[in-house]
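Data availability excerpt. The first of two example chains:
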Amino acid sequence: MGVDTMWGPYTVLCIDDMPQNLAILQRILEGTYQIVSHTSPEKAVELARRHRPHAIILDIMMPGLTGFDICKRLKELPETAKIPVIFLTSRVDHEAMVQGLKLGAYHYLNKPADHAVLHTILQAAIREYETQRALHDELHHMRNTINLLHNGEFRIRDLDQAYHLSALIAKACPEPDKQVTGLREMMVNAVEHGNLGITYDEKSRLIQDGTLGKEIERRLALPENADKCVSINLEQSDDKVEILIKDDGRGFDWQPYLRFAPERVSHSHGRGIALSNLESFDIIEYRGCGNEVLLVANKLEREPRRIEDYIS
């Protein structure tokens, strides 16, 4: 089967050796995304480099190259490394999840695909991809004057301020490209869940309904939230950078979110803290009721992390 393309505002690359599965995906996604599909796994990397999709949907069990093989190759190439990979497969087990997370997969979904869930996961993946690209662009255009600041306090109220401040503070960190992601996740969490009181289940529903942004704006405008802010304290020394983030909320049970949980693997959110713990910081220390968190990035060489140690 040759390359099949359908038009929409964002591009999604679909690879599955069964034509009928690709036909189902096209029916689900047509009119919303530009679809590039192929039955040959050997064509996946070439198509990803040519079309630069916003997300990639892969089957796992295919002849020749498996979905894992393709994901590994994509993550090794600078031009495709950040594209979110979603495994849509009949093989969803703990071993497969560990292997996929090691390779940098964004999500797993069961076959046959639930239409609403697939759209929700794709929207979340593309939104995250676009946000990360914008953050990294901003990061690389910023000056390094933040390194002249040995300690300081910042205050934010909304997500836009969180995005910009995370890029600024990341410039003081030893690996800005890694720390910027964790900083953004923690600041967004402090605004959404901390100050605005949006619960995990509420966020899931709001994302699925496409109304999360409106609900955030509504809650920001409520009188009881008018004086709430998130404070961020930065301290840096010769050997480490410490960032203390504190919100005005009631806190939350943070312990389950420090690790990847199999029951949340197909959710549209809920992995940010675990990713930050694995990839961004050497220490993540929640304090008190959970409305205060200390992030530490060592400037010395970092010990390698094992993904197995971060799965519940």
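And the second chain:
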Amino acid sequence: MTTTRSLRLRRVLGGVATLATLPYVTMKLSWLTGHLVGVTDPALVAGAGMPAMNVATVLLDLCVIALAVALASRAALRLPALPVLLPAWVATGLLVPIALVSLPLTLAAPPGSGIGLAPWVHPMVYGGFTVQAVCLLGSFAAYARERWWGRVTGPGPVPVAARGLLRALSGGGAVTGVLAAGLHVLAGAPSGRAIDLVATGVTAILVLTGVAGTLRLTGGRSGPVAVLGAWTGSAVAFAGGLYGVVVTMGATALGGAGSAAWGLAQVSSLLSGFALAVAGLLALAGSPSGSAGPAAVPVPDRTGVRWPHPAPARTLG
């Protein structure tokens, strides 16, 4: 895809993603100002931690807007890598489960009237997040293809000094990821409800996908499928675990009274997602863009013959 076409696509998708934030942000701002639009039970938003959670979720949507604008700018390809990768990765972890699980389950089995919210709230919220997932992540995919495609398709050797850390991170992330997946399934099983089994089962599959993708990357077998699996699975594990820990510790109605398995699943997911992401980043950063390994640079010896000599590996940028 040419730069002009990619930029045009990113602008269209970014504009739609920005518009999709407006209903949710408007509703949360109304709650913060005392206008409980869509709330049928005021006790739902009366918890000590709810105002802080509402502010935090508004800020997250503002981050979505900022990322969409950044990806659509002409200077996007010159931005530092980390300020682009980190918010896009966290957004992936938060939005993908909503698009794959929350919205379909809400439409298939609408929540009852006893949850304290009007019937239209969940479809509106999850629908908006799903549009954000498609458009924002689509914009990021077009951007990443233009900027980092060489690293995705051409793995190179990881620096010797980083190989021990890479093994520790990938191994630890894999073990905690498998543990988290099992705990997610265990947490959803006692209720016996299909909706809980589907939600926890999909989460477990995504986490295991992250484990498999990262192990392929750290094993020197790169490619779009491995990168997509590692990126999405590690993001879902980290963001889902972080959200679960925050709402539990924040004294909000969202935290509920989860089982011990549920709590351990959140913590292990958080740790696994972080470890897998760092391992995957190290694996990809070890290869120069657009090549399968270090470029050969002719270096003369004493006889004057120029022998190939590997150039230093470049960092991710």
